[in-house]
Structure formats: structure tokens, C-alpha cells
Amino acid sequence: MKWRFIEDAAAGGPENMARDELCLAHALETGRPTLRLYGWDRPVLSVGRNQKLERQIDLAACRDEGIPLLRRMTGGRGVLHGTDITYAVAAPTQGGRFSPGIMAIYGEISRVLVRFFQDLGRSPRVKTYSGGERGQMASAVCFATPSAFEILIDGKKVVGSAQRLHPRAFLQHGSIPLHPQQDILCRIFKGVTAGEIESQMTDLQSLGLLESHDREALLARLASAFEEELGVTLEHEPWSGQELERTRALRPAYEYLEQETAPEAVAAGR
């Protein structure tokens, strides 16, 4: 099966979320799956569509750090972007590889992510959690909250993903941190410490993978993992002018929630 493949340059948060929504619309309208790999032009904290901000996030600290917030169309918890690899998959759930149901979709994509890390010489394992376990271990930080199919390396979470399920299609997007984030995360999230975060999440630098792989090589390996594990062919197909016009109409729904006050954005892992 042939998938559409989009590899985008770094963009702002509202633009990135609008393009992810357009991927879902494309799957609904054409029945064709899309894999999108992209980056962020600055640190941004994305939060789940139902996440409580005031209770969990230090909004003043985010302003001080120059990190704006936006609300995703997907669920889940807070994810700090800016020095990460971000993926989005949108595909139909009827007549294709993906069966309807959140857990089944997470399971399929987790196999791809496991293969990605295996190809990089690591030994990830998938740990499943019940809904009750996820509730008991829930945190405001995505990487401190287990998902149904958690990918762990050395016992630590290495991918944070979230999903939006439509009756006929789905969008799943996720983040793979390149560098340590615990110092900044403990400043912008309430009730967590750097030690707690460090014990629960890891990143590609800490795993020693950035010594021999640059970002472009990592993106290529991730794309190959999708092809090889799912048995599909990725076809490069950039955005059309009409599609970019559509994203401009979608962007207002994802405008930053907090007015930025700091003149410069900080590096995500400082």
C-alpha cells in the first residue's frame, strides 16, 4: 500500500497542529494514510484537549521561560516540543490496516517505534498498562504518565503519543525527545521534581544515539521503520497550495494560550 509522506521543516505550534488536523481530514476525504515528520521553530508546550492547566502547569514559569502553550486536538498530557522528533500518522479505520479502536491503533504504531529503536541498536520493550494503572500513575507530564502500549528503554519512557479517533479515521502524533528535559519540566509543571522525571523518561542523547546519528539520519530511519514494519511504500508528496490555504483557516483553533513575554525562547533542555 502507498502512503503519503510529508517531511516538513520546523514551523510554529499553531501551524503544526493545523497541518496535523489536515492530515486527518485528508484520510477522511481520500482514504489514503499519511505519515508526517516535522519540527518546531521554538520550544512550545502542547497540552491535551481536556487537560487542566492551572492545577498542573505553572503558567507564570512558562511566561518567564518564554514557552507558549497550545491545546492539541488529541488527548493526553503536556509535551514540551522544540528539541524533539515529532511524527503524525493519519489513516482510515475501515478497509485498511488499522482496526477501529484506540488500543488496536496504539498497538500497531508501537510495533513501528520498537523497530525504529531496534534498528538503532537498542532493546526497547512494550509494557501494557490497564486503565486503572494509568489512572493511578497519571501525571501532568506526558512522559511521566503511562499509555496503554508504553515503549521503554532501560525502564524509562522514550516516546510520548496522543490520539484522536474519528468513526472513520484517526490521528496519532507523538514526540521523541532528543535531549534531556527534566530541568525545564520541573520548573513549568507543578508537583514534579527533576529526579522524578529523570527516573521515568529518557531521550536520544542520554541513550548515546546522537553521537552517531544526526537528525536527518534519525528521520530517515523512522520513515524506514514505518515502511518495513507495516509493509507500505512512502511517497513524498508536499502540501499543495490549496492545502496550505486550508491550514491558514485551521490555525486560529490552535493559537497560543499564553501571551509570550520573554524576548527569547530557551533551549528545551537547559
What does the model show?
With about 270 residues, the protein is of the alpha/beta class. It has a single domain (about 1-255), classed as Bira Bifunctional Protein, Domain 2 (BirA Bifunctional Protein, domain 2, 2-Layer Sandwich), CATH 3.30.930. The chain has helices spanning about 15-30, 55, 60-65, 100-120, 130-135, 180-190, 195-200, 215-230, 240-250; strands at about 1-5, 35-40, 45, 70, 80, 85-90, 125-130, 150-155, 155, 160-165, 170-175, 235. The strands form three sheets. It has a six-stranded mixed β-sheet, with helices on both faces. A three-stranded mixed β-sheet has the order 4-3-5, with no helix packed on it. A hairpin with a 2-residue loop joins β8 and β9 (about 155). α1 (about 15-30) packs across α9 (about 240-250), α4 (about 100-120) packs across α8 (about 215-230) and α6 crosses α7. The longest helix has 18 residues, at about 15-30. About 40% of the residues are buried. The model is unreliable at about 260-270 (pLDDT under 50).
Task: Itemize the secondary structure elements and their pairings.
Layout: E1 2-7, H1 13-30, E2 34-38, E3 44-47, H2 53-56, H3 59-65, E4 69-71, E5 79-81, E6 84-92, H4 102-119, E7 125-128, H5 131-136, E8 149-153, E9 156-157, E10 160-166, E11 169-177, H6 182-188, H7 194-200, H8 215-230, E12 233-236, H9 241-250
Parallel strand pairs: 1-2, 1-12, 3-4
Antiparallel strand pairs: 2-6, 3-5, 6-11, 7-8, 8-9, 10-11
Helix pairs in contact: 1-9, 4-8, 6-7
